[in-house]
Amino acid sequence: MILTVLHSATKKPVLWIFAFLGFFIFSMIAEVWAGSPMGHGRRHNSRAFQGHHGQGFLGEGICPQIRKTVQAPDNILTQSNPLEKNRENIYAGESLFQIEVQPTACKICHGVTGNGLGIMAQGLNPPPRNFTCRSTMESISDGQLFWVIRNGSPGTGMPAFKSLKDREIWKIVHYIRKLSTKKR
Fold this sequence. Notes:
Layout: H1 2-34, H2 74-77, H3 87-100, H4 107-110, H5 134-137, H6 142-151, H7 166-179
Helix pairs in contact: 3-7, 6-7
């Protein structure tokens, strides 16, 4: 009789262990099958959506975006981007925008799509610039974009990125310009 009670008592922990292991294995298989999680339940395979920071929000953002920033000096305001607009420069600009710029990548405020809806955008007033809004971006010169990236924008959350080289800023400007072009 005592052996029967001991035998049935040892079966229950074993069943719980197998149930736990089964659930654990099932959840691991489900996670692998679903792929890695990307921002707010959406799963993307685009390069722009990779990274370890939160992804912000998808959507169109505010467009048109009416706001005044400090105007660049005339000699910079009228400058066109001196770098050739090619895949290498745009790709380098994308890498800087999405990941490499320090202390925080541009996507943290401007969003991975450039829509101004990054994870830090909610706390900023005025909101970050929406680079996908063609009507807003047409009125901003390359020189003005360069100036704002280099010197920041007082009265907004845009910091100055004085540590970036001129070539890096111009590459970012190329990438930003690509965000407002019509998608095929």
